[in-house]
């Protein structure tokens, strides 16, 4: 009772902050910190001091300038009726140089890559960062990126602007094509409570080369329609996307909802004329219906259009929707193109592994799931619309799991329901899934 009475008395006690002392600043600019701590001088009670110091500590940690932030509150002797306090902030600045090595999901289907990252922190004392990243995939894909990242402190936590130079090369799925990309991009990410709005303006040099070894047979090369699209080209692009993730887990969700909408405008750099427009939209919802059992419903739609009579849409944009965990059990796309229009649905039931204890390592990182999925696609401009009769339906069951935070894997037995394909096992790994 006494403790509760004392707590209520302290909560309602009038109080003001007389001064704020900051210790440990070196490279970081003073105004970056004072902009965050000035709200401490607006408090009116002891409870306000408690809540505001927590907010200030959290905001200082997200500046990208400090490794640790500790805050202490002390009293100041005063003859006023209000209690006066001083706030002491002790910070440790983040190291100027950073470097790490890790494992990531590769650019190609079912690929794992090794990545090396390094750079400079807090370049001008405002949390700016210079990043250098180089990755190599197990299936010979490679990518190198140099980025200058500037945090947008006036916007919600995690918002940033960036300038990137990138070079990559990887094989397009199901096609005898290697796609090289060298480009420059300027963009921004605005984040708020699980929602991210991204805008990018870029210029890419696309180098499309043929994998002749996959077309050779007994010292002869067979013809493939995509050979006509080999060569180099310049492409300007404006990309905007809106995504939200309110699920309990990114790789193995069992509760919540998430969605993604992306629009890409491909332009001719020297004239500004539109080459193509691509829109992609996906949404997934998960709901627990029983102890350790969750129901999932997902849908995905992609469409590309062009004002040109004979458009030359880069193969990169035509083939990228064919993730093996979007099109489960999918047949290969037509040899001469990818998908102008594609649609996928999936209904699934996911549960923990039977006969395993809840705290076991295998139970925490794997699940059993069964699903019904269907997909349809069109590759002709004359018949881009998809009807219910176009869908190929599949039933599957298998095991799904996560490898740390790198990616999600699935081992499924898939049974075609209205497709000429044969039942069989399918393994896939990645981060794009329904």
Q: Which key phrases capture this entry?
A:
3-stranded mixed β-sheet, about 425 residues, mainly beta, 21 strands, 5 helices
- Low-confidence parts, pLDDT < 50 over ≥5 residues? none
Give me the Rg, rounded: 27 Å
Strand order of the largest sheet: 4-5-6-7-8-9-10-13-14-15-16-17-18-19-20-21
Helix and strand content put the structural class at: mainly beta
Q: How confident overall, as mean pLDDT?
A: 84
Q: Tell me the overall shape.
A: globular
Q: What is the count of helical runs?
A: 5
Portion in strands: over 45%
The major beta sheet can be summarized as: 16 strands, antiparallel
User: Which series of helices and strands comes N to C?
Assistant: HEHHEEEEEEEEEEEEEEEHEHEEEE
The count of DSSP E runs of length 2 or more, i.e. the number of strands, is: 21
Terminal CA distance: 54 Å
Q: Which range best describes the helical content: under 10%, 10-25%, 25-40%, 40-55%, 55-70% or over 70%? A: 10-25%
What can you see in these coordinates?
This protein has 434 residues and is mainly beta. Helix content is 10%, strand content 52%. The chain has a 16-stranded antiparallel beta sheet. A three-stranded mixed beta sheet has the order 1-3-2, with helices on one face. The chain has a two-stranded antiparallel sheet with strand order 11-12. The longest helix has 16 residues, at 46-61.
């Amino acid at each position: 009772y006494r403790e509760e009475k004392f707590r209520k008395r302290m909560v309602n006690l009038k109080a003001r902050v007389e001064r704020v002392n900051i210790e440990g600043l070196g490279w970081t600019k003073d105004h970056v910190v004072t902009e965050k701590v000035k709200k401490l001088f607006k408090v009116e009670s002891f409870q306000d001091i408690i809540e505001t110091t927590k907010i200030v500590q959290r905001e200082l940690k997200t500046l990208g300038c400090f490794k640790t932030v500790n805050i202490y509150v002390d009293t100041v002797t005063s003859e006023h009726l209000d209690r006066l306090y001083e706030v002491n902030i002790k910070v440790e600045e983040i190291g100027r140089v950073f470097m790490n090595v890790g494992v990531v999901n590769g650019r190609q289907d079912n690929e794992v890559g090794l990545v090396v990252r390094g750079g400079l922190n807090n370049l001008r004392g405002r949390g700016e960062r210079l990043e250098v990243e180089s990755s190599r995939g197990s299936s010979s894909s490679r990518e190198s990126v140099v980025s200058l990242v500037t945090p947008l402190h006036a916007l919600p936590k995690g918002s940033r602007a960036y300038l990137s130079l990138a070079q990559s090369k990887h094989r397009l799925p199901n096609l005898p094509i290697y796609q090289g990309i060298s480009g420059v991009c300027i963009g921004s990410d605005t984040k708020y409570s699980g929602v991210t709005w991204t805008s990018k303006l870029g210029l890419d040099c696309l180098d499309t080369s043929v994998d002749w070894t996959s077309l050779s047979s007994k010292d002869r090369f067979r013809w493939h329609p995509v050979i006509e699209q080999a060569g180099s080209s310049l492409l300007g692009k404006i990309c905007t996307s809106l995504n939200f993730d309110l699920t309990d887990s990114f790789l193995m969700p069992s509760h919540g909802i998430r969605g993604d909408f992306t629009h890409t405008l491909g332009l001719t750099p020297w004239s500004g004329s539109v080459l193509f427009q691509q829109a992609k939209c996906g949404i997934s919802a998960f709901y627990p219906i029983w102890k350790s059992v969750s129901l999932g419903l997902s849908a995905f739609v992609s469409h590309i259009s062009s004002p040109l009579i004979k458009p030359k849409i880069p193969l990169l944009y035509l083939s990228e929707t064919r993730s093996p965990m979007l099109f489960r059990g999918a047949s290969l796309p037509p040899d001469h193109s990818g998908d102008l229009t594609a649609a996928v649905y999936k209904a699934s039931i996911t549960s923990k592994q039977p006969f395993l204890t809840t705290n076991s390592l295998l139970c925490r990182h794997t699940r059993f799931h069964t699903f019904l999925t269907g997909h349809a696609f069109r590759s002709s401009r004359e018949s881009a619309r998809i009807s219910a009769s176009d869908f190929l339906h599949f039933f599957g069951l298998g095991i799904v799991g996560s490898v740390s935070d790198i990616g999600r894997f699935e081992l499924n037995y898939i049974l075609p329901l209205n497709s000429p394909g044969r039942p069989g096992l399918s393994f896939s790994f990645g981060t794009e899934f329904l």
